[in-house]
């Protein structure tokens, strides 16, 4: 009987821990932020051109990075809205870090937009499809900045493709 009691304790402890995290936990062992927690936001991702061999071509993805793509983070809540612009660098990578003025918005109220490709020949949105929906923010980690806590988010890859396959120039 004593052995049965110990087994029940071992089995129920992880369940209690999971429930105390709201039933959700990230792969890194940290719970995602609650929807109503306010903090500054950092957003990162990469803009690519699918099927074109520009400088930096990455064979496993069959894609090349697109430097110079305009990106912007847009947060809205009711009538309040704020836009933070950014641009992809030489490897197609972008990082937008917001200031404390964004702390009145939650991550669910923000989306990232990449309205067009900087490369005319590779201008058709491929993934995710569509131009106006914006990309949702996916929580990665909390980063301690000198002026407070920042939630670092990723939007992953934004792919464009040529209108006519094989015509990249």
From TrEMBL:
Residues making up the signal peptide according to the UniProt record: 1-27
Superkingdom assignment: Eukaryota
GO cellular component: cell periphery
A matching Pfam family: Pollen_Ole_e_1
Keywords carried by this UniProt record: Signal
PANTHER family reported for this sequence: OS01G0164075 PROTEIN, POLLEN OLE E 1 ALLERGEN AND EXTENSIN FAMILY PROTEIN
Protein name listed in UniProt: Wall-associated receptor kinase galacturonan-binding domain-containing protein
